[in-house]
Design goal:
The protein is of the alpha/beta class. It has 2 domains: 40 residues, no CATH class; 331 residues, Rossmann fold (3-Layer(aba) Sandwich). It has a 7-stranded mixed β-sheet with strand order 3-2-4-1-5-6-7. α5 packs antiparallel against α10 and α7 crosses α9. The radius of gyration is 29 Å and the shape is globular. It binds 2-acetamido-2-deoxy-beta-D-glucopyranose (4 copies). The site of one 2-acetamido-2-deoxy-beta-D-glucopyranose has 6 residues, from loops. One 2-acetamido-2-deoxy-beta-D-glucopyranose binds next to α1. It catalyses: a phosphate monoester + H2O = an alcohol + phosphate. This is acid phosphatase.
Length: 435
């Protein structure tokens, strides 16, 4: 089945080239336009920070009544990257090579590029497939003429210790603000609007839908099964592809960054990481002085980042969706940032940064996003007792003890006061007697 799309693409490509016979091998109009826009961005390209989603994968966790809920239908295993996914990232790697050849020598050099992935099989494998496209061995790096591939390091941090890329490290303040948001009238109204859909899905799938995220996971399983030509049960066909299920799946991507407080704690660390790196690069403080950073992550990473930047339009980030932060420096040595989002095969256009434009001074980026750049994430994640409820803070017991202590202090000071008054009085009288 992996071969079909390949031939289809080739056939399509052939047909297209026939139509374009007059100017074969020229990029399409849209591509030219996009490259034109990129060429007119002021300054010289110095650095890029790339963040992408993994490629095509198997379902993560089918629902209990799923007729396709059997490992034998999904040979590479739950949630694993497929050959299609590898191919997609290999293509993206080739595209990145073309776009950033001014920043990267054809030969791999560790002083030019750094690659990090979340600690998940499919993102690690996507990064490696991507690098196969980005760095085909050339010259002295050819180590085995039969293998057009060379090993490139991909770094990773355990998910629970990774507040930046995986964004899964515990953060009690985030949990608290999220509960607050979920209790809001706006959220509750939305939940009520889709309650019937959720009940319907829960009853038929054998797994209750307790959150928008649950609905999104369910939609995602149906999405993959459809992609793999598996016939969906009739009850599922009635809702899959419909406006409601699509909307709730897309909406789920916005929840973790819905308010600026949430965005600060969920997306802020990654945005800060990127901006800080752009700044270090510009100040020549990066060591080694690399020009490309690549992060391999998830659809949630893409959605959280876009929403933290106020650039998210409700949608499900597709496989290999890719954000690029490009740093240019103009004639006055001013660092300028452009953000691109590539989520189709078309050449991406720079996004319009709200209040700044397609080429935004780095200092202005800091100012624009000050509200979502945590000063000390670890500290901000601790919940101050002010934001806690009575029971949560266990204030019941604490207050009791406090009241006892205050009462005791009051008694003691009252006692002391009386004692000193009396003594004072006695002393005064004795003085008087002496006089
Ligand atoms: C949900 O389904 C729609 C198709 O109706 C698809 O475009 C979208 O990517 C799916 N979202 C997820 C998260 O799978
Ligand atoms: C599903 O069917 C379509 C149309 O026949 C085909 O192009 C596609 O490659 C199939 N998908 C898979 C994963 O086999
Ligand atoms: C691509 O991104 C744009 C901008 O966020 C969005 O409006 C669109 O729906 C996305 N399309 C796909 C296929 O992801
Ligand atoms: C953040 O605050 C903690 C104390 O809560 C401190 O240990 C840590 O060094 C601080 N981190 C930074 C980057 O200042």
């Amino acid at each position: 089945m992996g071969k079909y799309p390949h031939y289809c693409v080739k056939a399509l490509f052939f047909l297209c080239s026939c139509f374009h016979l007059g100017h074969a091998f020229r990029p399409t109009y849209v591509e030219e336009e996009a490259q034109g826009v990129r060429a007119t961005l002021p300054g010289e390209l110095k650095f890029v920070h790339v963040i992408f989603r993994h490629g095509d994968r198997m379902p993560v966790d089918p629902y209990p009544t799923d007729p396709w809920n059997n490992r034998k239908y999904w040979p590479t295993g739950w949630g694993q990257l497929t050959n299609r996914g590898k191919q997609q990232h290999y293509e993206l790697g080739k595209w990145l090579r073309k776009r950033y050849s001014s920043l990267l020598d054809a030969r791999y050099d560790r002083e030019q590029v750094f690659v990090q992935s979340t600690d998940v099989d499919r993102t690690l494998m996507s990064a490696q497939s991507n690098l196969a496209g980005l760095y085909e061995p050339v010259g002295n790096d050819v180590w085995n003429p039969l293998i057009k591939w060379q090993p490139i390091p991909v770094h990773s941090v355990p998910e629970k210790d990774d507040p930046v890329l995986a964004a899964k490290a515990p953060c009690p303040a985030f949990d608290y603000y999220l509960e607050n948001f979920k209790a809001s009238a706006e959220f509750q109204a939305k939940w009520a609007r889709y309650k019937d859909l959720f009940d319907y899905l829960g009853q038929n799938s054998g797994r209750p839908i307790k959150s928008f995220m649950d609905a999104q996971y369910f939609n995602n399983t149906l999405f993959i099964e459809t992609l793999y030509n598996r016939t969906l049960p009739e009850w599922a066909q009635k809702v899959y592809g419909g406006a409601d299920l699509t909307y709730v799946s897309n909406f789920a991507f916005s929840i973790n960054t819905y308010t600026r407080q949430l965005a600060r704690l969920k997306g802020g660390p990654l945005l800060k990481d990127v901006l800080t790196r752009l700044e270090s690069k510009h100040k020549k403080q990066l060591s080694p002085d690399r020009s490309v950073f690549i992060y391999s992550a998830h659809d949630t990473t893409i959605a959280n980042m876009l929403n933290t930047l106020k650039l998210f339009q409700l949608h499900s980030p597709p496989y290999t969706a890719c954000i690029m932060f490009e740093l240019r420096v103009d004639d006055n040595n001013r660092p300028l940032v452009s953000v691109f989002y590539k989520n189709t095969t078309a050449e991406p256009l720079p996004m319009y940064i709200p209040g700044c434009g397609v080429s935004c001074p780095l200092s202005k980026m800091y100012a624009l996003y000050e509200d979502v750049l945590p000063e000390n994430w670890t500290d901000e994640c601790k919940r101050s007792t002010l934001t806690m409820t009575y029971e949560e803070a266990n204030l019941g017991a604490a207050t009791g003890i406090l009241i006892c202590i205050i009462a005791a202090l009051l008694c003691v000071s009252y006692g002391l006061m009386i004692y000193y008054r009396r003594r004072d009085y006695n002393m005064h009288t004795s003085y008087a007697q002496m006089a």
